[in-house]
User: Which sequence fits this backbone?
């Protein structure tokens, strides 16, 4: 639901152009305002997830974004919708860093990537649901009814989480649980590996948000498909591929990194090399088969990165600071993704969306190099084990 409600408008851009008379710049702003709000508030959201009950925080976030989604159905002008996207960003912001930290609390290095991977499979399902199902319901029921339905389903999910999530303190934080201070939370900024992982997340986020926001529109215009079919192809194949690959990649990453934490960084870097040829096939391919190949291949770097961010952070941050650290990642990556989406919107008329999408491959080359540097140079001195040794000699 997290990704469904944030991405639903992307699949109905052609409808919004007609119904609310959105310009290309306003479409880009619709994506960017959400990301900028979400990003600016992310460090505070991570701090909330470290200081208060993580169970309560995630349930409250789900309920809040569901209400905002329902209210968004009442907008009548582009700027109304843009403002509500900013409010949605504020409502959603606490969920992801807190949920990631909650999962990490219950899993060690031998199962952490698999657990995070299964969680991210839900995100991929949300991205797919924001494609064909959203476009289909918006075309037949109207986009306002579609948003109301998303909100109702979200409220039902919040109630189900309230009834099912365990109320007991998690085992890893229970041994030393006291309210974290602002100074302790901000100390994650002093860890070079955390900063390097943050930059890596930014590079991935820039590509993710451009492709996620504009891929259905690109397929709709370039391949001359219907709105529903364009939304389906733009969200299904890459998410299906990632969902299938994710558990396998997570198991491999956990197995090798339990012996040497550096392996988690190097395995992820290798998988990321699939991104440039995938983006080339998507952006410049003239045939449906080439597009399909590129979309399926895009699932490889998506699965590798999403299964790795929190486990990488766990190598260099203590349990009580992990939500804050992930909040830092969210802030930097969302601000970057918002800028990238807006720049893409401004460039797509002059360069064409195909060229814009293809050029994103360069970001993954830089990401691969930085991951290897973080794993082989920074990790050995920044690991949690090394931090403990520095405090307790011998």
Assistant:
């Amino acid at each position: 639901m997290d990704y469904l409600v944030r991405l639903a408008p992307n699949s109905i851009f052609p409808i919004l152009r007609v119904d609310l008379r959105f310009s290309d710049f306003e479409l880009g702003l619709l994506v960017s305002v959400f990301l900028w709000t979400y990003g600016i508030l992310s460090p505070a959201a991570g701090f909330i997830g470290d200081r208060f009950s993580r169970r309560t925080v995630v349930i409250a976030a789900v309920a809040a974004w569901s209400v905002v989604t329902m209210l968004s159905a009442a907008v009548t002008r582009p700027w109304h919708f843009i403002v509500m996207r900013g409010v949605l960003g504020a409502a959603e912001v606490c969920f992801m860093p807190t949920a990631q930290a909650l999962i990490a609390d219950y899993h060690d290095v031998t199962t952490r990537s698999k657990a995070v991977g299964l969680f991210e499979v839900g995100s991929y399902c949300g991205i797919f649901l924001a494609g064909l199902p959203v476009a289909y319901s918006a075309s037949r029921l109207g986009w306002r009814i579609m948003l109301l339905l998303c909100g109702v389903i979200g409220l039902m999910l919040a109630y189900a989480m309230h009834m099912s999530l365990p109320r007991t303190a998690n085992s890893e934080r229970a041994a030393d649980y006291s309210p974290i201070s602002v100074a302790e939370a901000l100390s994650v900024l002093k860890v070079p590996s955390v900063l390097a992982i943050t930059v890596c997340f930014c590079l991935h986020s820039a590509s993710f948000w451009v492709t996620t926001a504009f891929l259905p529109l690109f397929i709709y215009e370039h391949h001359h498909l219907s709105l529903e079919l364009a939304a389906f192809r733009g969200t299904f194949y890459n998410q299906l591929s990632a969902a299938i690959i994710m558990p396998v990649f997570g198991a491999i990453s956990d197995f090798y990194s339990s012996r040497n934490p550096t392996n988690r960084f190097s395995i992820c870097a290798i998988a990321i090399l699939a991104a440039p040829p995938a983006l080339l096939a998507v952006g410049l391919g003239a045939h449906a088969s080439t597009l399909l190949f590129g979309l399926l291949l895009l699932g490889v770097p998506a699965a590798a990165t999403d299964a790795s961010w929190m486990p990488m952070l766990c190598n260099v941050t203590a349990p009580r600071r992990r939500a804050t650290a992930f909040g830092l990642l969210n802030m930097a990556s969302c601000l970057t993704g918002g800028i990238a989406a807006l720049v893409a919107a401004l460039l797509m008329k002059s360069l064409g969306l195909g060229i814009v999408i293809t050029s994103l491959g360069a970001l993954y080359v830089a990401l691969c190099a930085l991951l290897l540097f973080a794993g082989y140079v920074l990790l050995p001195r920044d690991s949690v084990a090394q931090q403990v040794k520095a405090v307790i000699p011998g």
Q: What stands out?
A: Residues 171-176, 385-394 have pLDDT under 50 and may be disordered. The chain has 22 helices and no strands. The radius of gyration is 20 Å.
